[in-house]
Amino acid sequence: MSVEIPQDLAELPANGGLYAIWMLFHHYGIDLETQDLVHLCRHNAEEGTYGIALAVGLKHLGLDVEFSTQHDPDPQPTEQFFYAKAQELGIPVRDEMNYAQIKQAVDQGRFVIVYYDTLEGVGNHSLVYSIDDEEICFFDSFEPMPKDVFIQQRQQEGICQQVIVIDDRNFVMRYS
User: Fold this and answer.
1) Residue 135 forms beta bridges with which residues?
2) Average of per-residue pLDDT values in the chain
3) Cα 175 to Cα 105: distance, rounded to the nearest angstrom
4) Dist. CA 129–CA 139, nearest whole Å
5) Residue 20 to residue 32: CA distance in whole angstroms
6) Average pLDDT, stretch 62-87?
7) Every domain of the chain and the residues it spans
8) Which residue in 39, 163, 167, 174 has the fewest CB atoms around it within 10 Å?
């Protein structure tokens, strides 16, 4: 399976979160412009995109979302802005989800974007491709990650075990 990723998205530094959104909409046959995603989610080359900004962006694009996170003791100004937007839009912000809860969401047919530290020590948002009791796979890397490694990488400093659960049932009903 191969997907032709737009060159400007592929070359964008810290593009994981925007790639996850782009891939999700590619699944629906909808092409999103990279610069529109950059603007919508306030992506920047140094930090990428905050998870709450991705959740708000997905809501603006017509999807129902829930955001889960550990308490962040030091939210950045951009995050604070998007948390306020999430509240305005009625996006539920819940406590962090564990591996079993992520698996359950995927098993229920939801798309899920997770935030974790890569093995190279870089925070990354990835759209889950598959998950079972032993491993998890992502659309941006079909190499399976063992469950225990994923759990470890979600517990790294600054990660806050963030997850976006996407319910596309209303979206699909509107556009089918």
Assistant:
1) 146
2) 93
3) 23
4) 5
5) 12
6) 95
7) 7-175
8) 174
Query: On the CB side of 145, how many CA atoms lie within 13 Å of its CA?
Result: 24
pLDDT value of residue 1? 46
As a whole-number percent, the residues of the chain with pLDDT over 90 amount to: 82
Tell me how far apart the alpha carbons of residues 51 and 69 are, in angstroms, rounded to a whole number.
9
Confidence (pLDDT) at 175: 64
pTM of the model: 0.94
Structural element, H or E, at residue 153: helix 147-154
- Reading the block at residue 74, the tokens are 């030091």
Distances (CA, A) of 149 to 37, 40, 155: 30, 32, 10
Q: For the domain bounded by 7-175, which CATH number is listed?
A: 3.90.70.10
Matching residue, tokens 């809860």: 101
Mean predicted confidence (pLDDT) in 133-137:
97
